[in-house]
Amino acid sequence: MAGKDDILKGSAIDDALAELPDWRFRQGSLVTVYKCPTSSAALELIAAVGRIAEQQKHHPDLDWRYNRVLIRYTSHDAGSGVTRRDVRAAMSAGEAAAHIGAVAEPEAMP
Questions:
Q1: Is this structure's pTM higher than 0.70?
Q2: Is the alpha carbon torsion for 69, 59, 56, 81 positive or negative?
Q3: Which of 47, 72, 77, 108 shows a CA-CA span of 20 to 30 A to 54?
Q4: What is the C-alpha to C-alpha distance for residues 22 and 4, in angstroms, rounded to an integer?
Q5: pLDDT in tens, 80-104
């Protein structure tokens, strides 16, 4: 369980984003959109992110729109900020997205 002292700020967020080129920091969260080759591939990505969430015991907010999956990571138990746990989860989600041929479109995040 994360605490408020675990929240990344300032240069720590910049360092995390350097490790996550497909992600952006918005409204206290790590966010991205993955465009998948098909709608069924988007569902595969959602399932993969779900498995990752269960393994890591850290669950993102997901939004599915045909062949796009919007993902948002924040640590609600740390005051809804970004922690290293969010960075690890985002890395794992990015690996899953690459495996199914999804392309990141973080600028498409509403």
A1: yes
A2: positive
A3: 108
A4: 26
A5: 789 999 999 999 999 999 999 999 9
